[in-house]
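TOKENISED FOLD:
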Amino acid sequence: MDGETRGGHERVPIFMWMPMALLLLAAALLAIPTRGRAAALRYAYQFESAEIYQTAVLLDKKESLPAPKSGESTQPSWNQLAVALAMFAIAGVSLYPESPKLKLARSLGAFLARIVVPLRLLQSGRVGDYVAWFTLGIAAFGGMLLLLR
């Protein structure tokens, strides 16, 4: 069976890791207490409210956005910040598992590699496998976002 790409696989191309880095940065920025976080909560509430959303979209009327629901804080918790830092750390170790500078990164990278090896055996290279893993990745990212909530 021919390989999917030509050349070696010494490094991850930028077009493969840049979207992930930008999404992680956006998630981290939303965890920082700013007016942007408060606005994101207000717009999320607007999107969740069927009446406000229908009025805005169908009737093109902009109502003043309500405050976030009671109990929702615009301040991130320590758990949310810890999850965001862990996401960045895992992403960095995944991109550079052979970094000689970080002993911890190498050991964590080896641990992650042992976890990934059985999963790689499940990948046959067919399109359906790519779709299944893509869906699993989106679900995992959604789970991370729930932890940041």
Notes: The helical segments are 14-31, 35-48, 50-58, 78-95, 103-121, 127-148.
